[in-house]
Design brief:
This protein has 6 helices and 6 strands. With 157 residues, it is an alpha/beta fold. 40% of the residues are buried.
Length: 157
C-alpha cells in the first residue's frame, strides 16, 4: 500500500532539520496541527515547536498549517506561531493540500507534508505527490474516532 507509506519517519517534528526537508526535494512545508505541533485540541505549541518553526523558516522554507478543524480552532494557534493556515481541509482529499500549495506558491511535488496520521496526512500527501514525513503523535488521543484510526494504522505500518 504505497499510498499509506511515508517516505520519511521521525519521532517528532523537532527532529526534522531544514536539511532533511531540502534533501527530500521539498521547498515548502504543509504541516498538521493536532498531535504534530501541539497536543490534541491544545492552543499551546508543544515545547520546542516554536523555535523549530523559526529555524525552518529562517532557512528559507515557508510553512503553512493544514487542518481538518475549523478556523475558530486553528486561527488562534496559527497566529501564536505566525503561520498561515488552511482550515476544513478535508484531509486526505487533495483539495485542502492543493489550496495550501497555492497559498505558498509551490507545486505539490515540491511540498513536504508533515503529520502524525497515516489515513489523513500520509495518504493526502501521497495523493498529491508530495514528500511525506510521518511523526509519532505528541500525546494520547482524546477523540474516539482517531483512537479507532490509530488501531487501524498498526495494520499498515
Amino acid at each position: 500500500m504505497p499510498l499509506l507509506k511515508p517516505q520519511y519517519r521521525f519521532h517528532n517534528v523537532m527532529e526534522i532539520t531544514p536539511e532533511d526537508i531540502k534533501n527530500s526535494g521539498a521547498t515548502a512545508v504543509l504541516i498538521d496541527a493536532d498531535n504534530t505541533l501541539a497536543l490534541h485540541n491544545s492552543q499551546q505549541p508543544y515545547p520546542g515547536v516554536s523555535s523549530w518553526i523559526k529555524t525552518v523558516i529562517a532557512s528559507g522554507i515557508p510553512m503553512i498549517i493544514i487542518s481538518n478543524n475549523s478556523a475558530e480552532r486553528v486561527r488562534p494557534f496559527a497566529e501564536k506561531l505566525g503561520l498561515p493556515f488552511v482550515e476544513k481541509s478535508a484531509k486526505p482529499l487533495p483539495k485542502g493540500f492543493l489550496r495550501a500549495c497555492k497559498r505558498l506558491g509551490v507545486k505539490p511535488a515540491k511540498a513536504a507534508v508533515i503529520g502524525d496520521q497515516i489515513f489523513t496526512d500520509v495518504l493526502g500527501g501521497n495523493l498529491i505527490g508530495a514528500k511525506v514525513f510521518l511523526t509519532k503523535p505528541l500525546g494520547p488521543e482524546t477523540d474516539n474516532f482517531i483512537k479507532f484510526k490509530r488501531h487501524l494504522e498498526k495494520w499498515v505500518e
